[in-house]
Amino acid sequence: MSDFVRHLFGLESQVAVVVGATGVLGGTLAEGIAQAGAHVVVAGRDEARGIARVQAIEKLGGTAEFHSVTADERASVEQLLAAVLARHGQVDMLVNCAGANSATPYFEIKDEDWNRVVESNLTTTHLGCQIFASHMRTQAEGGSILNIGSVTAHLPLSRVFAYSAAKAAVVNLTKNLAREFATQKVRVNVLCPGFFPAEQNRKILDTERVDNIMRQTPIQRFGEPQELIGPALLLLSRRAGSFITGEDLYCDGGFTSMRF
Known about the structure:
Elements: H1 3-9, E1 15-19, H2 24-35, E2 39-44, H3 47-59, E3 63-68, H4 74-88, E4 93-96, H5 111-136, E5 143-148, H6 161-181, E6 186-193, H7 207-215, H8 229-236, E7 248-251
Parallel strand pairs: 1-2, 1-4, 2-3, 4-5, 5-6, 6-7
């Protein structure tokens, strides 16, 4: 890596918290951020998967630790921030990657299922932003927050009503917070993946749905989790992304640009 590229994208001496890093996409982002030089706090509910992710990061030459968090509970998120500050004295980046999906016909959605999906995607993002930004704005270098949206925030997709609504709200919240924090040294952006088959959405990808997706994706394939790392590093980097805030960046193989 050239000194110029390292200067732009290197995250050395920084601390990143990735909420939802026990999942496939969040875990991949955690590995990429660690390889860029940051110390990564892998945060999630599943300790076994969290420790496995830490070990994977260490094998790649990075440094990481696991902290348990229930991302839709304020006290738990506050405890996460306190633990990170007690150990490291700083938190430079937050990635909000917790979330769940559902593929229930609209008239069959139960209240508890709707609430679960909205809370796991929108409430977790709100709590992370509110609690971590309140500290980031007091730091000399400020901080950067990356929320995770979805192509469903832009285009309606069948059978994911609660998820689509929650992700659209995440994009809206991101833009509002970017404006609110712009003069407080905290940047807030949202990365919107296209179709990256992971555990939360494989169950809704039947043959007919896959065929429809491919017809509307110019690159003609699904995304690979590691393809989210580059966009994430751009948005998180305090140098490469220094003038980027309030951005909704779609990494979707051209899906949102497709028109028949």
